[in-house]
Amino acid sequence: MFYTYILKSLKDRKRYIGFTSDIAKRLNYHNAGLNPSTKNRRPFDLFCFKKFKNKLEAERHERYLKRLKGGKQLEKEIEEMLKSSR
User: Fold this and answer.
1) Residue 86 has pLDDT above 70, yes or no
2) Domain that includes residue 33, residue range
3) Which among 5, 57, 69, 78 is least surrounded, fewest beta carbons within 10 Å?
4) What CATH number is associated with residue 80?
C-alpha cells in the first residue's frame, strides 16, 4: 500500500505534499529534520492522506496535487482526502 499525504507545519501553518509507503516513518523523518525542504518548518502534523494500490498511482497523485498550487481544486482534493483518511 502507498499513500499520498499532506503534512501541516505547526510553525508556519503551511502544507507539504508527499508520497510514501509508511506514513508514520515519513512523518518522523520530516520531524527529525532529515528532509532539507521541510527541516526549517518543523514540527509537522499529518493533515490527511489517500491510499493507493501501487507506487505509481501515489506518485502521480502527489504530482497532480503539487501542480494545483493552491486554489479551489486543491481544497476540493483535500476535502476528499480528509473524508477517506477518517
Assistant:
1) no
2) 2-84
3) 69
4) 3.40.1440
